[in-house]
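Students often ask why inverse folding is considered easier than folding. One informal answer: many sequences map to the same fold, so there is more than one right answer. In these notes we will look at a single instance of the problem. The structure comes first.
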């Protein structure tokens, strides 16, 4: 076999074939690199490698067309087949020579990686997995094309057959998406080299994918040996049975490996953002799961969200309590109708997470898969990260929870309306809270023990009966979340003030203004958008420790310093303004925010928490913030850590373990190429094909003159 390998390798480089193969491949790859990477200044090497994998379809026939068909055309095949080298050695030597050229060409593409490394960032582990899939796919196509070379009477026919077969392999995915019969689609999906390569391009090391590519190549090499045996007359008795058994064994082995890989989660995630890696928090939730959960992924065939489905496989592998299946919403109207409500309809690209035991379900749409952030300079929103895991784990915990904590938004006194509080409501709903509205004056359901009553900046006072209802709720251990804006007419609401003062909350008149000269105290330079100091309390301890302590309060009221003396009441500052701030009372005759003599100076308490032990022995909790916009404005949230803060507040008030899953969003975007001149990259694009051409001239021209 070594002699065959050497002879064929020399044949590649003592004839134009090897240079044509390498030159065409590198020329096309350079063009793709210029368009996909340099022109867009992208660092997305996996996408580029995925584009390069299609080049195998075009150039693999060049590599294999003459290996066996030329022997047959020149009638040297009889001499070769009668040589002392075994047929397996002949086929193996030729395949090894083609594989050597393939690997050498792949190695030259490492210069593209060098360019990205110089101007951007490369992730070595992910890149190694990408290239492994790329090489295995090329070797598999090469083995198939070698078999077709053995079938053809001439190199031209061999090339035509190989092009056709490679094209057929390429369109298998399209055919599989169009076929309605599931068993036919399953067969086509099993045979598809390109869909098998997708996990590698996502940075997922798939043992089943490696086995399939190697089995695919081994099957065609075995077929090639079998074909040559028939031609040479060397076919041992019983070989007609051995080959089908070998192919059946490979098929069963791959089906078993694919099944086991999916069941036990054998794939290893080496992606740059660990997109399919479960966090410890998710593993804890799944380990505690004792109720079956069914998930439907509503995707049309061919339009799947591959990272999301990969993650679903990991969840199902972690526990038998999770099962999932893909369903085309257009072909399953009964399924979507089952989970359709007046306010929501499951759409394409959505997930339905359902627990039959509790009867609860949650619909996750594309908007639940991403976290957005706003660029303060441009005001534009960009993708900050993928939140697949956070949303999915939260939905699983929501549908399986025995009791959903309830939040009551009290209405009827000019409080913030449903439209204004929509983002606040959605945030709580997405984090396993049931949110309902209640107008006590209209006889709507009253808060019950264990509920959280939320009163957001009322403009009219409570009635005596409503105040009595709320006091009774507090005596039974009920909790409150209050906001009190600087413009609220507190002077006309004595009962509302009475409820606040029962928790030690005493609002001050006026608007807190930060020192515009201090960039750490406010945003925008006006002194109105306060960046408060977050103090370490039961609510904020972990936020302060982790550095997630940036909030923005657009126009806020201050409160009196907490007083001591009542042993049944504990009040603590949670947020305060920074040094240099002052309190400004605005009047019709004076709307100036400038500091004047007599204006109280800060720092001032901006948010307070309280615990009150009732006569019945219950503990009632309360929290107040002097700025309702901080709880309702998504633009403020996108610039700060407000979401985490709100959830910590609600956890404190209901004495819950964390409802906010501490699952970080995964990076959505790769590092782009740095601004500047990428001349080296442009030089390499031209130099690679040129060097191949130069090598061809240096080797072939002297040989032609001999």
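Output (designed amino acids):
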């Amino acid at each position: 076999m070594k002699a065959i390998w050497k002879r064929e390798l020399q044949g590649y480089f003592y004839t134009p074939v090897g240079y044509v193969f390498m030159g065409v491949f590198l020329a096309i790859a350079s063009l793709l690199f210029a368009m996909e990477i340099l022109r867009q200044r992208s660092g997305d090497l996996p996408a580029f490698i995925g584009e390069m994998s299609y080049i195998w379809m075009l150039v693999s026939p060049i590599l294999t067309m003459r290996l066996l068909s030329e022997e047959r055309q020149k009638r040297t095949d009889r001499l070769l087949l009668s040589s002392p080298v075994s047929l397996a050695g002949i086929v193996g030597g030729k395949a090894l020579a083609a594989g050597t050229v393939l690997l050498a060409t792949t190695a030259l593409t490492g210069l593209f990686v060098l360019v990205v490394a110089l101007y951007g960032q490369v992730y070595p582990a992910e890149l190694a997995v990408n290239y492994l899939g790329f090489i295995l796919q090329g070797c598999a196509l090469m083995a198939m094309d070698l078999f077709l070379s053995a079938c053809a009477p001439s190199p031209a026919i061999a090339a035509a057959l190989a092009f056709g077969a490679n094209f057929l392999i390429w369109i298998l995915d399209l055919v599989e998406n169009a076929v309605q019969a599931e068993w036919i689609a399953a067969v086509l999906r099993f045979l598809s080299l390109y869909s098998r390569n997708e996990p590698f391009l996502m940075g997922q090391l798939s043992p089943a994918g490696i086995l399939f590519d190697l089995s695919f190549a081994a099957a065609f090499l075995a077929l090639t040996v079998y074909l040559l045996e028939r031609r040479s007359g060397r076919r041992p008795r019983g070989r007609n049975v051995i080959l089908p058994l070998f192919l059946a064994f490979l098929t069963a082995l791959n089906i078993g490996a694919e099944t086991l890989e999916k069941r036990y989660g054998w794939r290893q995630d080496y992606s740059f953002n660990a997109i399919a890696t479960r966090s410890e928090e998710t593993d804890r939730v799944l380990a505690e799961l004792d109720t079956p959960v069914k998930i439907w992924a509503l995707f049309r065939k061919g339009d799947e969200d591959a990272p999301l489905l990969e993650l679903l496989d990991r969840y199902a592998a972690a526990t038998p309590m999770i099962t999932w299946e893909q369903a085309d919403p257009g072909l399953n109207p009964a399924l979507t109708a089952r989970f359709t409500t007046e306010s929501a309809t499951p759409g394409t690209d959505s997930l339905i997470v359902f627990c039959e035991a509790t009867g609860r379900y949650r619909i996750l749409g594309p908007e639940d898969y991403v976290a957005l952030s706003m660029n303060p300079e441009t005001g534009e929103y960009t993708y900050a990260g993928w939140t697949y895991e956070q949303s999915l784990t939260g939905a699983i915990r929501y549908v399986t929870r025995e009791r959903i904590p309830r939040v009551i938004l009290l209405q009827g006194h000019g409080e913030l309306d449903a439209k204004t509080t929509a983002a606040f409501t959605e945030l709580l709903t997405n984090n396993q809270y049931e949110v309902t509205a209640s107008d006590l004056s209209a006889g709507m359901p009253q808060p019950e023990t264990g509920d959280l009553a939320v009163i957001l900046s009322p403009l009219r006072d409570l009635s005596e009966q409503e105040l009595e209802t709320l006091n009774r709720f507090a005596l039974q251990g009920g909790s409150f979340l209050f906001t009190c804006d600087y413009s609220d007419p507190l002077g006309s609401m004595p009962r509302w003030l009475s409820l606040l003062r029962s928790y030690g909350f005493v609002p001050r008149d006026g608007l807190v203004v930060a020192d515009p000269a201090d960039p750490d105290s406010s945003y925008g330079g006006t002194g109105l958008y306060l960046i408060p100091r977050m103090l370490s309390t039961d609510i904020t301890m972990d936020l302060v420790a982790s550095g997630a302590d940036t909030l923005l309060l657009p126009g806020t009221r201050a409160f009196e310093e907490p007083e001591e003396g009542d042993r049944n009441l504990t009040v603590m500052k949670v947020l305060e303004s920074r040094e240099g701030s002052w309190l400004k009372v605005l009047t019709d005759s004076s709307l100036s925010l400038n500091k004047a003599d007599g204006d109280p100076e800060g720092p001032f308490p901006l948010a307070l928490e309280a615990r009150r032990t009732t006569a019945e022995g219950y503990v009632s909790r309360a929290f107040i913030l002097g700025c309702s916009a901080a709880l309702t404005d998504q633009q403020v949230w996108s610039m700060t850590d407000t979401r985490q803060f709100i959830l910590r507040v609600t956890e404190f008030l209901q004495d819950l373990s964390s409802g906010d899953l501490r699952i970080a969003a995964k990076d959505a975007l790769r590092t782009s190429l740095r601004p500047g001149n990428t001349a080296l990259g442009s030089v390499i694009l031209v130099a690679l094909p040129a060097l191949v051409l130069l090598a061809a001239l240096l080797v072939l021209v002297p040989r032609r003159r001999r």
